[in-house]
Specification:
The protein is about 45% helix and about 30% strand. By secondary structure, the protein is an alpha+beta fold. This is Integration host factor subunit beta.
Length: about 100
C-alpha cells in the first residue's frame, strides 16, 4: 500500500473527513515519526510495532560498478520491530 492508497482508504472509512483533512493527518503522523527518530527517540505504536534507529559503524565498502574500495561513514539507520499483535495476525493469515 502506498501513501495515496492509505489516504483514500482512511477517507473512505471516515466519510465525515475530507480527503484534504486525511492527507494532513497522515502527513502530520509521518512527520512526527520522522522528527522523533531524527532526534534519537523511539516511536511505539501499540499493536503495530516500534520504530527506532540503529548505529552503523564506519566501514570500507566496494563500488559494485568499478570494484574500487570506498570509505563509508558511520550513520544511523531506521529500524522497525513489529509488535506481537502484528506478528500474530501475519502468521495466522499464513496458516
Amino acid at each position: 500500500m502506498i501513501r495515496s492508497e492509505l489516504v483514500a482508504k482512511i477517507a473512505e472509512d471516515n466519510p465525515h473527513l475530507t480527503v484534504r483533512d486525511v492527507e494532513a493527518i497522515v502527513s502530520t503522523i509521518f512527520d512526527e515519526i520522522t522528527s522523533a527518530l531524527a532526534s534519537g527517540r523511539r516511536v511505539e505504536l501499540r499493536g503495530f510495532g516500534a520504530f527506532s534507529t540503529r548505529a552503523r559503524d564506519a566501514r570500507t565498502g566496494r563500488n559494485p560498478r568499478t570494484g574500487a574500495t570506498v570509505k563509508v561513514d558511520a550513520k544511523r539507520v531506521p529500524y522497525f520491530k513489529p509488535g506481537k499483535e502484528l506478528r500474530e495476525k501475519l502468521n495466522a493469515d499464513a496458516e
